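2024-03-11 09:14:02 INFO worker-7 job=invfold-0412 stage=load source=structure_tokens
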């Protein structure tokens, strides 16, 4: 199992619906989250993370919002909840 998880800002965007790519609840989501904020939240949580600035989510290939690669052995859902609480 690959311990790296990829997180995109759209996963935490309150303005998006679940079908548009949001992966956390509206209560945990933020207005226009940035990859830098996700990276900072991962570091605050004591996780090893790196940011890829020019990357884009496949569904939003025109928006180069970046992405964060986090080393995590648990489920992606657990990771997203942990990060969302720190953003």
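2024-03-11 09:14:09 INFO worker-7 stage=emit residues=87
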């Amino acid at each position: 199992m690959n311990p790296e998880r990829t997180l995109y800002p759209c996963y935490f965007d309150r303005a998006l619906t679940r079908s548009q790519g949001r992966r956390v609840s509206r209560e945990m989501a933020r207005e226009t989250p940035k990859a830098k904020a996700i990276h900072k939240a991962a570091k605050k949580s004591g996780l090893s993370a790196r940011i890829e600035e020019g990357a884009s989510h496949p569904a939003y290939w025109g928006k180069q919002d970046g992405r964060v690669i986090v080393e995590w052995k648990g489920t992606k859902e657990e990771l997203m909840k942990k990060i969302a609480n720190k953003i």
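2024-03-11 09:14:09 INFO worker-7 stage=report msg="Strands lie at 4-7, 49-52, 67-71."
2024-03-11 09:14:10 INFO worker-7 job finished
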